[in-house]
Structures are given as C-alpha cells and as structure tokens.
Amino acid sequence: MKNKLYLGISALALCSSVPAWAQTVPSTDTQSAGARDSAPAAKNEQAAQQDSSAHSEDIVVTAAKREQTLQDVPISVAVTSELTIQRAQIRDLIDLQSVVPSLKVAQFNTVGQTNFIIRGFGNGNGNVGIEGSVGVFIDGVYRSRSAASLNDLPEVERIEVLRGPQSTLFGKNVSAGAINIVTKRPQFEYGGRLDLTVGNYGELVAKGTATGALSKTVAVRLSGTVDQRDGFDRNVVTGHTVNDRNRESVRTDVLWTPVDRLSVRIIADFNELNERCCGAVQLFNGPATQFIAAPPPFGLGAMVTNPATKYSRNIAFDRDPTNHIVGKGISGEIDYELSFAKVTSITAYRDQRDNSTEDVDFTGANLAYRNDQTHTKTFTQEVRLTSSGTGPFSWLIGGFYDHEILDTSSQINFGSQIRAYADALSGASTALPGRSNLFTLEYLQSLVTPSIKPGATYFAAGQAVIAPYTLKQDSFSFFGQADYKLTDHLTVTGGVAYLSDRKASTSNVVLTDQFSLLNLQNVPQLPFLGLPANAFGALGALQFFYGNAPTHAPVNYPNANETGVLKGDKVTYLGRATYKLGPVNFYASYSTGWKAGAFNLSTDARAPDANGIGRTANPENVVLYEAGAKAAFQGGYLNLAVFKQRIKGFQSNAYTGTGYSLVNAGQESVKGVEAEGAYRPINWLSLFGAATYLDPKYDSFLMAPCVNYDTVRCPLNPATGLRPSFRNISGDRPAGIAKWSLSTSATISHDFGGFSSFLRAEYDYSSRVQLTEVVPTQYGSTETSNVNASLGFALPPQKLELLFFVRNLTKHNTLIGAFPTVAQDGSYTGYTNDPRTYGATLTKRF
C-alpha cells in the first residue's frame, strides 16, 4: 500500500516539476482543479471548449460571491468541471470525495441524512436537530437537507468545494466550508442531450435535458432523470437486495432577459426517491449478539452476519430498511446592472418529506424496529450589491435570511422476541430456579401490585418510545467585503458579517417501555432476588431508554427550567493580503466562522442534569490561519495551502448504541497542507494530482461519551456496575480524520479525424484511520485505496458519444462507518463501501 501512496505522490510531484513558466495554461483534464481537456464531442464544440479553457485564468468561480478566475481567487477552493463529472461518473456528492481529497462524505443509516466533512471538520449525520458544518448550495440556494444526489440535476457546469470557514459571505452553517453547485443556464440556441446508462446490478439511468428560446427574451431548459439499480447487498432473511436505487426527478429552468442589464431566472424542481437503504454488517459479535445467534434453548436462533465475512455483501435484518423522500422547490434569481454595481436577489422555497424504517437491532431477530418521519419547509432570501468597474477598490454588501419549520417524529417499537432477549440479559434467578431475574422481579412485584403480570408486563411486543419534535428557526446575516489594490501586485481584503440565529423547539416524547420507567434503586422487591451488589447495573443495561436519567422517564419541554429556545449571534470577519509575483499569486488570510447552537432531537435526549449536560449544544466558533500560493506555468498549474484551523465548542454527536450524545468539545484543532496541480507534458496526455495532510487534535474534550473498551477512563463502579457517563479524551487524535488523502489521474486523448477518444484512470487513497471514538480501532478502522477508469469515443458529425466506465476496479473492500450495535453492549456494526460497478453511457447531443 505504501508503494501506491508513493506512486500517487510522485505523480503530484511530476505536476509541479516543470522548468518553463508562463501565464497561459493549455487545456487539461482536471478533477478538483477545474481545468478541462478536449471533450469527445463535435469538432466545433471541442474547439470552443479548448478555447474557453486555454488559460487557467478563464476558469471562473463564484467562491467569493463574485465572478473571479480560479487562480486569482485567494481562497482554497477545489473546482470539479463538467467534463470530470462525466468522465469520472460522479453520480452524487459521495462520489465527489474521490476527486477532492480534503472532502469526505458519509451516508449511513438513511439516504436523507448525509454528512459532509472538510479538513476533518463536520457533523450532523443521523440527527435532524444538528445542522451540518458544511453548507450545500445549488444555483445559489442553500439546501438545508440533502440526499446528496447529483443525478436529479441537469448538466452541471462545475462544483466548487470551499475549504475553511465561509461565514463572512455565506452565513448559514458554513463554519467548516461550503459546497457550491452551479448548473448550466438556459440557452437561446436550441440544443440538448440524451444519456442512457446501463450497468451491472441491473443499473438503468435515463437522463435528458433540452434548452432553447421561447421568444427573443425568454429561454428555457427542461430536464428529467430516471435512475434505477438493484441493491448491492442481499438480506439473507427476507431474500431482497438492499442499497438499491430508485429515483426520479424533473426540473424546469426559465431565463428572462427583457433588457441587456436585467435577467430573471426561475427554477422549479421535483424529485422522488423510494429505496431500500441502508445495509449494515457486524464487525464484532459480543455476548449479547452471540446469544441472538445461538440455537434454542441457548439463544434465539436468529441469523446474524459473521464479522469474518463482512465483505460478502450479505446482511441479516428481519425486515428491509426503506427510504421514501419527496422533495420539491422553486427559486427565483434576479440580476440587475446599475451604473456602479450589480444587484442580485435569490428567493427560494423548498419542501421535503423524509420517511424511513429500520431494523434497529441489525440482526435477524425481531427485537426492535424504527420509523422516522420528517417534514421540512424552508424559505431563504439573499440580496447582494456587488460593485462594478475597473478601479483599485471593489466591494460587496448583502444580507441573507433563512426561515425553516421542521416537524419530526421517531418511534422505536419492541418486537416479538424482545422478551426472550431481555430475560437472557437479566441473568438466571436464584430465587426462582429455571426463571430469569426479570421474571422473578415481575413475580415479586405482582404479589403487591396485581396489575404486574409475570412474563408479560416488561418488554411486551409493541412497547415503544415515541419522540415527536418541532423545530422552528429564523436566521439572518448582514455581510460586506472589500478589496483594495494598493499596488499593481498587492491587494488587501477585509470582510465582516453579523449573524443571528433563533431556534424554538418543542418535544412530546412518550415512553411506553415499562421497564425503562422503573427506578431500580427504589424497587422494594429487588433485594429478594439475591443478586450481587451491582445488580442495579446488570438490570440497568436493560433500561434502553432513560435508564440513567434522574427521572427514568422523558421530560418534555418547554417546561419551568427549559424554554425550548436557543438564541445566539456573532460577528465574524476576515483579513487577507494577496501578492502577485509574475505567474504566482501568494496569499495569507485570517478568518473566523460560526455555527449556531443545536438541539438533540433523538429518542433519548435528556433534560439537563447536575453536570450541566442536556439536550442542546452551544455554538461552534472557528478560527483559521492560512497561507497559500497559486502558480500557472507552461503546461499546467500548482496550488499550495498551509493552514491551522481550530473550532471551539465543536458539536460532537456520537452514537452510543441507544441514542446520540450531543456535547460540545472544548476545542479541536487541525494543522494541514493541501497541494494540487495539473500538467500536460504533451497535447494528448493530461496529469492531475491532489494531496491533503491533516494533523488533528482534541485540545480539550472533557465530556466525550464513555465506552466499555476504555477501562482506564471508564471504569466500572463496583457498587453499581455502571460506567461513568463521560471520559476525558483531551490530547487524543480525533477519529475519522485520515492523516493522508490523495487523488491522482491521467487522461490520454486522441483525435482520429473521423472520431475522437480518451482513456482515463484515477486513483484515490486515504490512510488508515479509526472511524469513530465509540468503536475500538481493531474493529472500526479503515484505509481507502480505490481505482476508477473510463474509456470514451465520440463521432462529431453525429454528435454521438459512448463512454465505458468502471468504479472500484480492483474490488477494494473498506468500511465507511461504524457504531456500537444497538442495545447489544460490546458488539459493533459497520457500513461497507460500494463494490465494483461498471457500465456504459450512450450520449446523443443535438
């Protein structure tokens, strides 16, 4: 594996080791840098594309909310072009991380919850009350909830990944970075394309887009997609495949330009997803899981996957997981040119419904299942005034408003085998031989309380925790940024923003699990069981919900102690200096970021206790120091950035086996280096390389959730048999952040006269890393080493293209996530990567 890493680094070094320097850069096939090589299309289109990308300065980005070239914008930004998206078969934002090594994207238990991480920072997956630290924007519209799909979009012009805090200009949930997706605008010349993709696992994707003029001032683009595929995993219990694709989308994009200085763009879209997702396998089977798998009378005799064969693509759930998402929205963008500036207004409304079901014990036993329903309505408004002209002073001012209403409900029900499972975990009774401690407790209680039925009161099928929440939030920001060119070479930049956020939440949690409602320290019959001194701890492990809460029951809010309201505001700012020395732009910057507080909307969110730990988290505050250089030279370019970034109050959201532990880390920091470059040594060969090195650390984290395998910091209390709730992991390396991430590619292109062709190969690598702090390294660590390839042909006169592709060519197996198995202490479950996929795409342009 080290040889592969050295190979990739050598390719990156090759990109930068050229003797000749110049301002211009020939067309190159990029991944995250955004330059383009010749596309297999008609000759006139090919020439136009070459002309438009003949210089790296022609790659226009909007990372600073104004059009600038990639090499001029003094921000660490990775740009993925339309050409790379097509050739690399980037279907969704999960695929995007293979060409942007500083970006990591994770999708675990449901499709609708996707977590984006930039430079090791990010959160929000699995808990709808916790917003991500990386904002996603599509055509300028903030997407608060994303299923991470790109296939429901028409032709994507480019994807910009902005690294580091962007709060000064973007405002909402961008304390770690932003992903800006730009689609192609409607054209007044008639044209379009049809794509048909077939592949293994029964893949069939039909996609089309058409554009043209309705009048001299109105152009329209109509797009639609159908995306279907069988599942990668097979559920050996139900016989169905899981992790399939079944998506449909339509989109209308209208552009109106009544006069030269005014344009109005209206976009309406609808998409629906109905899939069986997501499958998980066992990484380690502890005693509780072994009991589930053991044959009767020694166990439940249910199917459980074998950790030794976790990459067999077999899962064992007693019911298939399902996801049904319906999203729709409309947005309007108005651009008006004044004599001194351009006014931009972007108004949007989005509505999304997410419904999902899961077998939350992740075994073939019928222990528990979960149903989630979330309805999100979002209205956003942004207004900007951007200066025009060519003087030394340029500026931008604006405001942003976000109003969101979220209604969500999670329900976990016990299944038909939960009682037998609970009996086994409670241990054999000495008071009533042949019975369990749980049964004996019921029997003794029934002597005093006739309503308690031995063998039936506790852990009856259908008992549940039902957790409905509402969350209403209003956020706004006012921002401004100015650039002043002191000399022909030196430019200074200053920016400031005021951000305000208010969240109001209500809870109406209902617990019908009778055993979790018990206060085991106040049950008179308990001493008669003859249990050891730590019996409370042994039986307490069966209190899956609110067992260690002071009330042993949910406390809903608002109440006398909790208003259910979080309010916060912050002033963020940046200062930057840029110095242009010939073909090289040097920059140094200092910037701050902020993300508002969060609510824990999980099924076992707790009222605040004596330690001050409750169901909310304080805001995140980010500081970034960064210096970089962007160089353009004969045949290529090279961009470098070094940085130190820290987050005070990082909102940690670890899953502990029964719920989410939302706490603020005192401070987390990361030092790193990013490098990316492209080089075309000869006309038919394009090389690209990008690498990221990260050195993260928990400077202070006093209340990380305790785990059973850390016996030093989480010792059992011999009197109660319980562990502490929290441990101090200050000084540890945060999990999930690889030291090295690397992406390289090589593309060979040739024009045979009658047709053109290309051959592309890419490799992405991430060094071994522990996936999460709540799973031991030996079970929950992984390394990524992935090879993708594509081969394309084009017949320019017919405007036909044929693309063959393969992803994960070498069938590399790795984990993408891990967590403690639900209600099975000492067991661990994980998610595996996609297998090798391949297929062909036929494109007809017109």
CATH architecture term: Beta Barrel
Mean pLDDT: 87
The CATH superfamily name is TonB-dependent receptor, beta-barrel domain
Q: Which range best describes the helical content: under 10%, 10-25%, 25-40%, 40-55%, 55-70% or over 70%?
A: under 10%
How many beta-strand segments?
44
Structure report:
This protein has 846 residues and is mainly β. It has a single domain, classed as Maltoporin, Chain A (Beta Barrel), CATH 2.40.170. 8% of the residues lie in helices and 48% in strands. It has eight helices and 44 strands. Strand 15 (245-259) and strand 16 (262-275) form a beta hairpin. The two termini are 45 Å apart. The model is unreliable at 1-57 (pLDDT under 50).
Features of the shown structure:
48% strand; five-stranded mixed sheet; 846 residues; disordered N terminus; single chain; 22-stranded antiparallel β-barrel; 8% helix; mainly beta; Maltoporin, Chain A; 8 helices; globular
